Fold Cryptochrome DASH.
Amino acid sequence: MKNITIYCFRNDLRLFDNAAFLKATIESDILLPLFCHPNNQLIHNDIQRIGIHRQTFLRQALNQLKDNLKSLNSDLLEVNGNIYEEIKKISEKIGATKIILEKIISPEELDQENSIRSIGIPVETFWQSSMIEPTELPFNLKNMPDIFTDFRKLIEANKILTKTPTLLPAELPPLPDINIEFVSNVNFPTSIKYECTSFPYLENQFYGGEKNALAHLENYLIKKLPHTYKETRNQLYGINFSTKFSPWLSLGSISARYIAFRIKEFENQHGANESTYWIWFELLWRDYFRFIHFKFGKKLYSKNGLSNNNNLINHNNENFNKWVQGETGNDLIDAGMKELRFTGYLSNRMRQIVASYLIYDLGCDWRKGALWFESQLIDYDVYSNQGNWLYIAGLGTDPRGGRKFNTKKQNLEYDPNNTYKKMWLN
Ligand SMILES: Cc1cc2nc3c(=O)[nH]c(=O)nc-3n(C[C@H](O)[C@H](O)[C@H](O)COP(=O)(O)OP(=O)(O)OC[C@H]3O[C@@H](n4cnc5c(N)ncnc54)[C@H](O)[C@@H]3O)c2cc1C
């Protein structure tokens, strides 16, 4: 009997250092690379769950993946709709004997996996989105330390290293006999302000996709930017103040493991300092927000998060809408919210400030804020988004319990000449 595999890409849209895809290529006689477009239902009035910035960046990433697969005599089948129904239909049509997909442990994605399992043919899932393998951790994930600093210290004390990246597949098994045509209807955005954005994804160099992700990493290293990262990372605007790895990481166009591997090589060649360490440190935050999902699961998505107290929220939709539109009357917040809506990107510092303002100054539901970010951020990542919102709301694992930012103080410290505000308010 022939091994006929469906490889369903999720947030691992790459061929290099994709161990699960490599395994599929080795074990299959016939291989169908598939991408099922996620559900895009409305989340707020007429707001789509995946806003136009995310749609565009995803389209670019899929185009590159398709080209890469074609260069290896394969292709990418794209479908739209309910993932269970689509995979069921296709597997019946091609007589699939196995389905392989990336493991994602957030509640919605786990439900998807369970529904795919009910199709009745073997399903294999692979965890491959963290920098450190869960199996390398010096503790069982169910017992991982709640507090980031304790987690980090254990990783450092045990000298946990990231694994070497896996290779590109040398060749791909043939496709099944199936029609691959897919018509995409993304309307590329016109509202993006090129001259101001910190992540100009409509420019060639910043397109979504594996080729650009790898090129961006090399460019970042060639410019020796890792040596100054820690000093600049809290700035509010510009291309080079932070790494800008996150949009590509979020779709898996590049792996966190490979970034860590290249930063290590950079350190060996050009020297390590506090800044090069700090890139690793921030990527470890990314891992941490992933790993706490293994421990707390769905609880991270409830109104009270991990808190045992009832978190009283008096959500005000009018205030929420003003926040979304950048019309709160607080200039720093309005600048940030306009930047997010016009470009799909916001610096980490501004994300913290606007999230704190929504929760503590406007008294709104933090989960609504998280949904708005989900719709807008081109680097939307379910684990990092949920984890950071919970952290600021004081409902996660922060030992200090909540982070309220004073906008006047933040303004003085990070935008003393009001340059950032003027960029977005004029
Ligand atoms: C409310 C809120 C929501 C957020 N939502 C997301 C999200 O949906 N997707 C996302 O990738 N990041 C999210 N972040 C984290 C952070 O703001 C972004 O990762 C960062 O701004 C991306 O830009 P960069 O790649 O230049 O980051 P850099 O500063 O260059 O950091 C390097 C990498 O480290 C990781 N990283 C840095 N800071 C964090 C952090 N606080 N949490 C987790 N990982 C981090 C990212 O992968 C990033 O690419 C959120 C932060 C806040 C406060």
